[in-house]
C-alpha cells in the first residue's frame, strides 16, 4: 500500500502485520515506473533468462496485478539491463539450480530497481503457462528435471505473444469479449 501520511502509515503497518504469518511488515521507498518480472532457470550457477513479463496493476494505493504480458515490449537496451541485473542478483544470492522469479521497477529515465529476487517460479500463471505459451519452453518440466539432477539447456521453439488477464472490478469492461 502506498502511504503519504503518518495516519496512513499506521493503518498500513497494522493491516500488513495482521496479514503476516510472523506479525511483521516491510516498509520500502515508493518507486514510480513500469513493473516487470523475469523468469530464469539455473543449472550449476549458469542462468538462462526465459522471459521478461510486463505487468499492469490497479495503481495506487494497492497495486494489485491485473495483467501479465510476454514478451516484454520494453526497448531492447532496457531489457538487456534488466537481464544483467537479474544475473547479478542471482549470483549475489548464490542461486545456483532451479527456477527464479525476479521483479523490477524501471523509472522513466531508465533506472532499474530490484523489488524481489527469489528462487521460485513466478505465480499468476507466469511460470506455469505464459513462459511455455510465449517461448515453447516447458519451464515446469525444466524445474522438475533439475530436481532430479537432469538438465537440458532451454530451447525456444516459438516466439509468440501470451498474456493473462484477471477479471475483476477494474477489468469488468472486458466481460463482453469473454461472454461471446
Keywords:
D-amino Acid Aminotransferase, Chain A, domain 1, 6-stranded antiparallel β-sheet, 27% strand, globular, alpha+beta, 180 residues, 6 strands
Summary?
By secondary structure, this protein is an alpha+beta fold. 30% of the residues lie in helices and 27% in strands.
Fraction in beta strands: 25-35%
The whole-angstrom Rg is 18 Å
CATH-scheme architecture of the largest domain:
2-Layer Sandwich
**Helical stretch tally:** 5
What does this structure look like?
The chain is α+β, with helices and mostly antiparallel strands and 180 residues long. The chain is built from five helices and six strands; from the N terminus they run H-E-E-E-H-E-E-H-H-E-H. The protein has helices at residues 6-19, 76-92, 126-135, 139-147, 175-178; strands at residues 34-43, 46-57, 65-70, 98-106, 112-118, 162-165. A six-stranded antiparallel sheet has the order 5-4-1-2-3-6, sandwiched between helices. Strand 4 and strand 5 (112-118) form a beta hairpin. The longest helix is centred in the middle third of the chain and has 17 residues, at 76-92.
List the helices and strands and how they pair.
Elements: H1 6-19, E1 34-43, E2 46-57, E3 65-70, H2 76-92, E4 98-106, E5 112-118, H3 126-135, H4 139-147, E6 162-165, H5 175-178
Antiparallel strand pairs: 1-2, 1-4, 2-3, 3-6, 4-5
Amino acid at each position: 500500500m502506498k502511504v503519504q501520511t503518518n495516519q496512513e502509515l499506521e493503518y498500513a503497518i497494522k493491516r500488513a502485520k495482521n496479514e503476516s504469518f510472523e506479525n511483521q511488515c516491510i516498509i520500502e521507498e515508493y518507486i514510480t515506473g513500469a513493473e516487470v518480472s523475469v523468469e530464469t532457470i539455473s543449472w550449476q550457477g549458469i542462468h538462462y533468462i526465459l522471459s521478461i513479463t510486463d505487468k499492469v496493476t490497479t495503481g495506487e494505493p494497492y497495486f494489485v496485478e491485473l495483467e501479465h504480458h510476454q514478451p516484454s515490449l520494453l526497448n531492447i537496451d532496457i531489457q538487456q539491463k534488466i537481464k544483467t541485473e537479474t544475473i547479478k542478483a542471482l549470483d549475489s544470492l548464490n542461486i545456483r539450480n532451479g527456477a527464479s522469479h525476479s521483479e523490477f521497477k524501471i523509472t522513466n529515465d531508465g533506472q532499474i530497481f530490484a523489488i524481489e529476487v527469489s528462487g521460485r517460479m513466478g505465480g499468476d500463471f507466469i511460470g506455469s503457462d505464459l513462459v511455455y505459451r510465449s517461448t515453447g519452453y516447458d519451464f515446469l518440466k525444466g524445474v522438475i528435471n533439475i530436481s532430479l539432477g537432469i538438465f537440458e539447456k532451454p530451447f525456444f521453439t516459438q516466439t509468440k505473444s501470451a498474456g493473462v488477464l484477471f477479471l475483476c472490478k477494474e477489468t469488468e469492461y472486458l466481460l463482453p469479449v469473454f461472454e461471446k
